Amino acid sequence: MTTASAPAPRALEHVEALPRYVTAAPAPAPDAVLLASNESPFDPLPSVRQAVIDGSARLHRYPEMHSGQLRAELGTRLGVRPERIVVGTGSVGVLQQIFTAFARAGDEIVFPWRSFEAYPILAGACGATAVAVPLDAAGGIDLAATRSAIGPATKIVLLCLPNNPTGTMPAREAIAEFVAAVPPHVLVVLDEAYLEFTGAGDETIGLLARHANLVLVRTFSKAYGLAGLRVGYAVAPADVADALRRVFLPFGVTALAQLAALASLRAGDELAARVAAVVAERERVHRLLREHGWRVPRSYANFVWLADPGRAAPIGDRLRESGVLTRVFPGEGVRLTIGTPEMNDRALAALSGVRPR
Ligand SMILES: Cc1ncc(COP(=O)(O)O)c(C=O)c1O
Description:
The protein has 357 residues and is α/β, with parallel strands linked by helices. The protein contains 13 helices and 12 strands. The protein folds into 2 domains: 109 residues, Alpha-Beta Complex (Aspartate Aminotransferase, domain 1), CATH 3.90.1150.10; 221 residues, Type I PLP-dependent aspartate aminotransferase-like (Major domain) (Aspartate Aminotransferase, domain 2), CATH 3.40.640.10. The site of pyridoxal-5'-phosphate has 13 residues, from helix 4.
């Protein structure tokens, strides 16, 4: 029985201290252009929709717990054994599994920052300390400073490649050198959510054979356009993969998500054409913004970064008033997702009235 004076249950202090994940604001008008969340601007592929419709006949059944069929297909394509692949609820779910399995209070998780906003939340949620290493002046990842930030309490070092929200990426050789320089007892996690937009091919897979402390994290949310279904995966050493499966939310990845991911893998050519279209648009938007005088780092992802610490909020407001939703980082800059040419033109038109500094 409760009494008026009894204290209500309180969450743990470290949970109450967690920053909140900022999601895209609601669209101000039905024709608003959604360029805030690095989603695919394209409707789902017909073959993928059909797979989901067909799968709905079995909604009364639990999904395959560890996405065996999807892991088998990924394993064949990536040339790794399926035991080394872990499928989770989006790559953010996979990251949560990694942090939960490898870090706790007193441990440190090191990552360059500004980066994907879920990192400090996930680190804090497992009680670990987030060690944020500032980006360099051009918005690039400072690998030397990141390496130096690894200390005796470090359990995980995490790189976002390419970095969200700046779009930058170190050279392939520098990444390989970095991974080799991390002490073997520290887990190195490469978040490759935007890998398909880099144009670099799948080079990090080759590093897995050389490093027993390396984990790659990937997603079907971005290039594959399945953000709404929540499916991503890690490729890891077998013992790491086993640990990640132990902390998996049982049945977290739905059967529909698994079927859609499988159908997407089989529609590789269609998806590659979509990625190529986004990359071509990224280059066009980048060029036009630079010509207009904006400071925009070269991007390897499906977004560009407008660095303007003093005016990020008013620029975001202006875009929003023009019906273009972007992700605004007050005091830092604005991240503009690349959409279709028509969407991008609306963003460029809104920005043409702003004089860059
Ligand atoms: C760098 C990075 N990693 C992971 C994610 C999470 O994606 P998802 O959980 O949809 O796979 C995002 C989403 O924006 C991201 O930018």
